Amino acid sequence: MFSHLNADGNPAMVDVGGKAVTRRTARARSVVSLNAEIMQHLNGADILTKKGPVFQTAIIAGTMAAKRTDDLIPLCHSLGLDNCQITITTEGNDALIDCLVSTEGKTGVEMEALVGASVAALTIYDMCKAFSHDIVIHEIKLIEKTGGKRDFKRD
């Protein structure tokens, strides 16, 4: 049975009232493929545009989104995050976005990490589209999680 359906098959938030509070972490990654035209604007560790520094803005947007995940995903629990760290590195024409989130709680932070990485990727798209629309966001995925019933790590 899917965890977000009640006995009648209707959507329902999972009751975490009986779960123990544990340290929960999750790391997600998104990849934004840019092109040479956009990457020629890479100056040091960031792309500078008239709107401002792309990666720095994406980090702020991703952090804000991770903190508001329950406003975006209907059945997510409201969580107070202890930490949200977003890093952006480049590899060729790709921007690799990693979002690491943690909390002490009764439910995991996978969705917060995924939302943070996703919104950071969308922000890069938004800020670079004036250069070119030849931008692809792909590989939004959970890399690892700890805490709860079982840990997960993608090889």
Short description:
With 155 residues, this protein is α+β, with helices and mostly antiparallel strands.
Describe what you observe in this structure.
This protein has 155 residues and is an alpha+beta fold. The chain has a domain at 42-148: Alpha-Beta Plaits (2-Layer Sandwich). 26% of the residues lie in helices and 35% in strands. The chain has four helices and eight strands; from the N terminus they run βαβββααββαββ. The chain has helices spanning 36-39, 54-67, 69-72, 110-128; strands at residues 22-33, 42-43, 46-49, 52-53, 83-91, 94-105, 136-146, 152-153. The strands form two sheets. A five-stranded antiparallel sheet has the order 5-6-1-7-8, with helices on one face. Strands 2-3-4 form a three-stranded antiparallel sheet. A hairpin with a 2-residue loop joins strand 5 (83-91) and strand 6 (94-105). Helix 2 packs antiparallel against helix 4 (110-128). The longest helix has 19 residues, at 110-128. The chain is elongated. The two termini are 27 Å apart.
Q: How many DSSP helices?
A: 4
H/E series? EHEEEHHEEHEE
Contiguous runs where pLDDT drops below 50 for at least 5 residues: none
CATH topology of one domain: Alpha-Beta Plaits
The shape, in one word, is elongated
Counting helices, strands and paired strands, the structural category is alpha+beta
CATH architecture of one domain: 2-Layer Sandwich
Count of beta strands: 8
Helix percentage = 25-40%
Task: Specify Rg, calculated over alpha carbons.
Answer: 17 Å
CATH superfamily grouping of one domain: Molybdopterin cofactor biosynthesis C (MoaC) domain
Task: Report on the biggest sheet.
Answer: 5 strands, antiparallel
Proportion of beta-strand residues: 25-35%
Mean pLDDT: 93
* Quaternary: single chain
Task: For the record, give the distance between the C-alpha atoms at the N and C termini, rounded to a whole number.
Answer: 27 Å
Highest-level CATH class of one domain: Alpha Beta
**Strand numbers in spatial order across the main sheet:** 5-6-1-7-8
